[in-house]
Amino acid sequence: MKKIIIDALTGEETLVDLTAEEISENETNAQQRAEEVEAKRVADENHANLKASAKAKLIAGEPLTEEEAETIVL
């Protein structure tokens, strides 16, 4: 892997290889980000399931329309 170093004063661009430490850090960061994205996806899915369950329970317990239940369940 390579990285670009740009000298802000001259605008000169230099392409250099990443060090083993930088590669390891990038891989760790990518793994952490993937875990965060998956955790967010699971949390969103759980929230949607909980919302649907609450709506069904409201509809079953009271004679509410779906639109009424949607206004109560946020």
- Main sheet: strands, sense, barrel: 2 strands, antiparallel
Low-confidence sequence ranges: none
Count of DSSP helices?
2
Radius of gyration (Å) = 25 Å
Helix content: 55-70%
Strand content: 5-15%
User: Per the principal axes of the C-alpha atoms, what is the gross shape?
Assistant: elongated
Structural class call reads: alpha+beta
How many distinct beta strands?
2
Helix/strand order: EEHH
Give your account of this protein's structure:
By secondary structure, the protein is an alpha+beta fold. It has one domain (2-72). The chain contains two helices and two strands, in the order E-E-H-H. It has a two-stranded antiparallel ribbon with strand order 1-2. Strand 1 and strand 2 (13-17) form a beta hairpin. The two termini are 46 Å apart.
Comma- or semicolon-separated keywords:
alpha+beta; two-stranded antiparallel ribbon; elongated; 2 strands; 74 residues; single chain
